[in-house]
Amino acid sequence: MKKLITFFKEYKQFGLVIITIIVAGVLALTGQSTAAHIVLAVSAILNTIPLVWGMIQDLRSGTYGVDILAVTAILSSVLFKEYWAGIIIVFMLTGGESLEDYAERRAQAELTALLERAPQMAHVIRGRKELDIPVGEVVVGDKILIKPGEVVPVDAVVLEGISDFDESSLTGESLPVSKTIGQDLLSGSVSIDGSITAKALQTAENSQFSQIIKLVKAAQAGKSPFVRMADRYAVPFTLLAFTIAFGAWALSGDSLRFLQVLVVATPCPLILGAPIALISGMSRAAKHGIIIKNGSALEQLARVKTMGFDKTGTLTQGIPEVKDVAVYNSYKEDEVLKLAGTLEQVSNHVLASAIVNLAKTKKLSLAKPKHVKEIAGRGLSSVIAGKKVLVGRLSLLEEEDIKMPKGFNGQKINTTAAYVAIDGKLAGVITFEDALRKDTASTLERLKRLGVQERLMVTGDNKTTAQAIAKKLGIETVVADALPADKLIAIDKAQYKPIGFVGDGVNDAPVLTAADVGIALGARGSTAASESADVVIMLDSLEQVAVGVDVAQRTIRIAKQSIMTGIALSTILMFIFATGKFMPIYGAAIQELVDVVVIVYALRAHGPWRGVKDDVIAS
Hints:
CATH superfamily of the domain at 289-317 and 437-549: HAD superfamily/HAD-like
Number of strands: 22
CATH topology of the domain at 289-317 and 437-549: Rossmann fold
Low-confidence stretches: 107-117, 609-619
Strand content: 15-25%
CATH architecture of the domain at 289-317 and 437-549: 3-Layer(aba) Sandwich
Radius of gyration: 32 Å
Structural class: alpha+beta
Number of helices: 23
Distance between the termini: 30 Å
Largest sheet: 7 strands, mixed
Shape: elongated
CATH class of the domain at 289-317 and 437-549: Alpha Beta
């Protein structure tokens, strides 16, 4: 009973049509035919009102649909007192709309409605008191405290302290960025390992995070209306139907012929064939961790000719790995890595994890460090196996008067690095990189085979890094050092349309909205990206992007075939009923058989497709 009540709440129009048919049926069976006809006529006329209003709105927005044929058939049924034929048409129309609504509700239910990185509260120091206040109440000039693991609430400048910050979701910079006195902080970035006191430079409304959200809204408002696949068949089918209907009336002189033709010409194959195929394809995709939010997104995904990618966390893993271990003063690589890994076990820093992981991969025996001294935001020191070990920033080693090799210049190391000192001498420099995903190259190649003509990388990372990765992957176009607004310009200049874009960070949200189809990697990415995108990949796999395109293309192919099958059968029936030998109610009943054929054919989209195994299912 609860499910029934929920159904009628969510799909009121379709539910009322069902109730109307039941009531009219009871009245007719009890001999009250006149009352039954009144109920059917009133329901049919009332259901044309939203159709007519929808037609007006579509025309205003520059789109069109199959509604004119449906409205004409319903009103003609009432005019010719063929009430049951009219209500059957209404039933199929409202049923088709309910199917589309169901598909969108089901897809949206897979996603969270919150922006996970949106700061909510701020620690403000006023006088000698630390107060927790809503981020919207922070004013320019307020002194704010940002603790390890916390999100920066507003744009600010550092007054005291030092820490690494994760800005990857905002700028695309994959490695942590060190911030100290006098340097700017972006709202939405995350403090990793140190406490910072900063001065607010902007209110929450004017900070970087809010500016990105504003770009998202502007991109959404500026998106062109999309003409759905079924609607593109509407004009020729409608013209054909009216031509046959008016021709039958003119040649026979019998106005009923007009209705007899239109009853079997109702656009149910268009209204049912596409939604059912799309729902089937979307459902199948969801089993494999690909959430396609609506039918329009699936249609656009099937047509994509340019696919743009963010770099950090999309083409790359988004997690630093050790790139190289340079050793000095006769120390060996494994010795440096073993001592550094032993010490870094107590740290939660992302670079510490990379060092420990490599040491474990090499099966180096890591002892449990004791009496570790942490220099907040700068490094660690301890005595391990009788040796004094220090791991941290170059500045820390310089302050500790660590002896450097002759000719060594740490300033020439232009990438993120951890410096290791043993017994007062530099022993090694560990550098890091954001490695490519294992499936990146194969995914790009598969997209090319699926007809994607241009691959585009748009990233906030530096030009040198971006071009090196693009060359390795064979990506044709690269835009580096890109802010969120620059990404919008980049996709607008793409040569081939429609454009898809794949990203995972807050900074990708505007471009995911503006692209013809935005694809978010939601397993590790920002909810802001998932909310803005049309398609969300729930698995931590780039390969699912290519799978999604493959699924979409197959689904649209089946949808088109089901539509054309329905149109062909309806056209044959129009010529048969133009003879006037069959009453409209028979046409409505036969049209139901056409609908069944279309539905069964469209359900093929739920079957398995090429290159995707059923055991690869999202948990």
